[in-house]
Amino acid sequence: MKKGMVAVEDTMCEGVIIGILSRLPAKSVLRFKSVCKAWRTLIEEHFFVEKHFEQLQRGANTRPDSIMFVNYNDSRLYSLDIESLSLSCDEEQVELPEKVLRSHNYLLGLSSTYNMLLLLGSCNGLICMQNGKSISLWNPCTRTYSQVVYPPKDTQFVRTMTFGFGYDAKVKDYKLVRITCFHDQLEQQNASEVKVLTLSTNTWRRLYYVPYNVGSTPGKLINGALHWIDVYRNLLICFNVEEEKVKEMAKPVYMTNNKVRNVRVFELAGCLALVCRSTKKGSDIEVWVMKEYGLENSWTKMFSIDLKRLPCSSFRPHCSCSIRPLHILKNNEGILLGRNNSLVLFKPNGNGYQNFYGLSSLVSSFLTYRGSLVHLDEKE
Predict the structure, then answer these.
(1) Number of domains present in the structure of the chain
(2) How many CB atoms within 10 Å of residue 372?
(3) pTM, 2 dp
C-alpha cells in the first residue's frame, strides 16, 4: 500500500475503487466523500487528485457539465448544471426553477471597488475572473482560489486589451496571457504586445509584439492554444500555450470566398468553432466546427440559425453579436445558445426552438466548464 494510502473495505479492491472514482465527474466524486471517513481521506489525497486530473485530461468526454454566467445588473455569479435543463422535452417555453440556479460569492481575492465582473476563461475546472484590476482563479468544486498579479500600468495609449487562460502540460503549470493593442504614433499603425504570467511564479513576462488587434473578447482555449479573431481583418489567430508562439490559422473556405460579418470564435464540445453572420441571408448566423484540429478541410458547417425565429426577442441588425453558442447536444441533435436573460435550444431536425427563461436579468457573460478536483492556494 502506498504511503499515506487509506485502508478501504476488504470486500472491494482499493485499486478498483480508485479506478472507478477517478473516472467519475468531480461533482459526483465529492458527494462520495460523505460515504465514510476512509473514502473522504482517499478523495483528498494528492495522488488521487492527480489521477483524477489525468483521467480528465485524457478522457474522451470533453463536454462541459456546467454553465457559469454573470448577472449584468449586480455582477452576481451564477451557475447551473446542464443536466438540469430538460433538453429532451418538447415544450417551447420552459421556466428554469430557482433551485437549479446556484449563486456564488465571487469576491475571492477580487477588488470590491468595481462592479464589472468578467469571466476570462476556464481550464481544467478552474475559472479565471477579473473585476477591475483584480484577477483570480477559482475552482467552484473544491471552493479554492488563487489571486493573480495584475499587469503593471501601461505607459502607451491602449486601444484594446484581452486575456486568455490555459494550461501548459509540459511544465504542468497554468498561464495567463495578455494581448494589448497600442497605437504607434510614429508608425501610425497598431501593434499588440504579448505578455504571459505563469501561475507558479505569479510574475509577468513580455514576449514580443504582433501585428494584430484581437479586440477585448477573452481568448478561447482549444487543443492547448488560445484563439482570437483579428477585429479588422477577420483573421483567425492562435497562441500556443506551451510553445508561447502566435500564428494564423485557416478559416473555412466559405468564409474566405464570401463576405461574412461578426466572425467570432468559440469552443464547442472540445472543438474549435467559428460563428458568423451570413450576408446572403441577413438574419442567419452560421456555426462552423473544425472536426480535426489543425486540419483545414475538416471545417464543417453544423448549424444555420434564423435569428428572426428566436423566441427570446425580436430580430435586430446587431443582435447576432449577443448570441453565444454554449453546448452541442450528443449526436449533433441541437445546439444550446446563450442570449440576454435566457438560454435557447435550437433543434434543426426537431421542433425548432426551445426557450429556457428565468435567468433573473440580463447576462453579461456566459462560460461553460467541466468540474475538477484541482486545489488552489486559498480556501473560501
Answers:
(1) 2
(2) 23
(3) 0.86
Q: Torsion-angle region of residue 175: left (phi > 0), alpha (psi -120 to 50) or beta?
A: beta
DSSP state of 136: E
185 vs 360: CA distance, rounded Å: 45
Answer yes or no: are the C-beta atoms of 343 and 337 closer than 8 Å.
yes
Q: Which range among 159-163, 281-285, 337-341 shows the weakest confidence by mean pLDDT?
A: 281-285
Determine the residue type at 20.
I
The helix (run of H) or strand (run of E) holding residue 357 is strand 352-357
198 contacts 206 by C-beta, under 8 angstroms:
no
Cell of 69: 454566467
For the stretch 322-350, pLDDT in tens is: 778 888 877 777 888 887 667 888 887 76
In this structure, how many other beta carbons lie within 10 angstroms of the beta carbon of residue 93?
12
Q: What's 354's domain CATH number?
A: 2.120.10.80
Q: How many CB atoms lie within 10 A of CB 260?
A: 22
**Is residue 278 within 8 Å of residue 284, measured between CB atoms?**
yes
